């Protein structure tokens, strides 16, 4: 198998799908690796680093797409990249298709075999390839929220940790999963007053235990969400339904409950966002105001710390990529239903139910699309 990676073209996206260490692992398994020139330069990996690890460096992304049977990326393909994708090619990357009908239809039309990092499961219901970026995004949510709470950025001018004699800033976190947990760690570390909302009583008990009652946990009901909206200086949206669009838990009219200059950080924006007023932004222009509330909705938050993110991401995605390259999509999916959940499109069929439902498309189970009997 020829495995390729290209330089990411999304605004201020410096992460890369394969590191030199990843290349070495693929080459050791007998694969050829093709890397677009300067693909990793933004995070300190030179073309010579890739060559020394056994890769061939290609001058253009077009050549990588043309020759590679499997393309490993970080972000969803951009319009210029979609034009290069071909029938039967394996695309292995973050896709978040439930929030992007046009991309879904393009992958179906081109009969691309797309495997999404965010829907691969580990057999216990965990999302191993999503976890490292969720950890980073959760931590960044507080870092960015604290920054945009500063008056110069349109915020209230509140220091989250406060000082002696002055009340601490208040942080609300909707969702106590991996993003919420890591946001909580950072907020508690800054000595903020933290409230976490979640639907799971077990999860709330876990968070209360590990933070030794330094936080408040509340059942995520409309009433409690409204109370947290009134109190919060920074509100983090950390809700995830695997592979599906995020639910809109805060409506436009609810913003009137918030303090002028409060900050919303919607980490769920990749899946459509959990605030009705959320829309994707970029690192170039990360915030906007709605009803005097600052919205930070950058769709590739971990790209801000691209080297850390790349090393964390590839440490997990490599093992599944090696299985894909060795067995192909068919063999990969036969490895178990948890792995098969990573497959989103195959031979023009939508094979992930939540994506099909989001766009009112026909859903075809992977084994029916492949015309095989699952083992």
Overall 3D shape:
globular
Distance between the termini: 24 Å
Tell me the strand order in the biggest sheet.
Answer: 3-2-1-4-5-6-14-15
CATH architecture of the largest domain: 3-Layer(aba) Sandwich
Rg to the nearest angstrom?
Answer: 21 Å
Commentary on this structure:
This protein has two domains: 177 residues, NAD(P)-binding Rossmann-like Domain (Rossmann fold, 3-Layer(aba) Sandwich); 162 residues, Rossmann fold. It starts with a strand and ends in a 5-residue tail after the last helix. By secondary structure, the chain is an alpha/beta fold. The strands form two sheets. The protein has an eight-stranded mixed sheet, sandwiched between helices.
Using brief descriptors, characterize the structure shown:
375 residues; Rossmann fold; seven-stranded mixed β-sheet; 16% strand; 13 helices
Short structural summary:
This protein is α/β, with parallel strands linked by helices and 375 residues long. The chain is built from 13 helices and 15 strands.
What order do the helices and strands come in, and which of them pair?
Elements: E1 2-5, H1 20-28, E2 32-36, H2 47-52, E3 56-58, H3 61-67, E4 70-72, H4 79-82, E5 90-93, H5 101-109, E6 113-116, H6 131-148, E7 170-174, H7 178-189, E8 193-198, H8 201-210, E9 216-219, H9 222-231, E10 234-237, E11 263-266, E12 287-290, E13 293-296, H10 306-334, H11 337-340, E14 343-346, E15 349-350, H12 353-359, H13 366-370
Parallel strand pairs: 1-2, 1-4, 2-3, 4-5, 5-6, 7-8, 7-10, 8-9, 10-11, 11-13
Antiparallel strand pairs: 6-14, 12-13, 14-15
Helix pairs in contact: 6-7
């Amino acid at each position: 198998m020829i495995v390729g990676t290209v330089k990411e073209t999304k605004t201020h996206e410096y992460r890369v799908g394969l590191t030199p260490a990843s290349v070495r692992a693929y080459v050791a398994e007998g694969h050829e690796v093709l890397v677009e020139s300067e693909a990793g330069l933004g995070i300190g990996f030179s073309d010579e680093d890739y060559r020394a690890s056994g890769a061939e460096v290609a001058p253009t992304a077009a050549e990588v797409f043309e020759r590679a049977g499997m393309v490993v990326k970080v972000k969803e393909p951009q319009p210029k990249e979609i034009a290069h994708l071909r029938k039967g090619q394996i695309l292995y990357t973050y896709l978040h298709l439930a929030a992007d009908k046009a991309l879904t239809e393009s992958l179906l039309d081109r009969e691309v075999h797309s495997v999404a990092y965010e829907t691969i499961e580990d057999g216990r219901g965990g999302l191993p390839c999503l976890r490292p970026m969720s950890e980073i995004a959760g931590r960044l949510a507080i870092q960015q929220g604290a920054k945009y709470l500063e008056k110069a950025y349109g915020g209230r001018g509140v220091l989250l940790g406060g000082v002696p004699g002055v009340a601490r800033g208040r942080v609300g976190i909707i969702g106590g999963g991996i993003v919420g947990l890591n946001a909580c760690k950072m907020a508690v570390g800054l000595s903020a007053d933290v409230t976490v909302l979640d639907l799971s009583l077990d999860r709330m008990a876990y968070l209360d235990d590990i933070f030794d009652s330094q936080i408040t946990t509340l059942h995520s009901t409309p009433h409690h969400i409204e109370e947290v909206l009134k109190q919060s200086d920074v509100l983090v949206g950390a809700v995830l339904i695997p592979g599906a669009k995020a639910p809109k838990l805060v409506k436009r009219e609810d913003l009137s409950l918030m303090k002028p200059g409060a900050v919303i950080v919607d980490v769920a924006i990749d899946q459509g966002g959990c605030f009705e007023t959320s829309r994707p932004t970029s690192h170039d222009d990360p915030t906007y105001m709605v009803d005097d509330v600052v919205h930070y909705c950058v769709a590739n938050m971990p790209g801000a710390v691209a080297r850390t993110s790349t090393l964390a991401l590839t440490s997990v995605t490599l093992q599944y990529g090696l299985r894909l390259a060795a067995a192909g999509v068919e063999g990969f999916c036969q490895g178990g239903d948890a792995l098969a959940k990573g497959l989103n499109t195959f031979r023009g069929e939508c094979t992930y139910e939540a994506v099909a439902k989001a766009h009112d498309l026909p859903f075809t189970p992977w084994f029916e699309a492949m015309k095989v009997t699952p083992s």
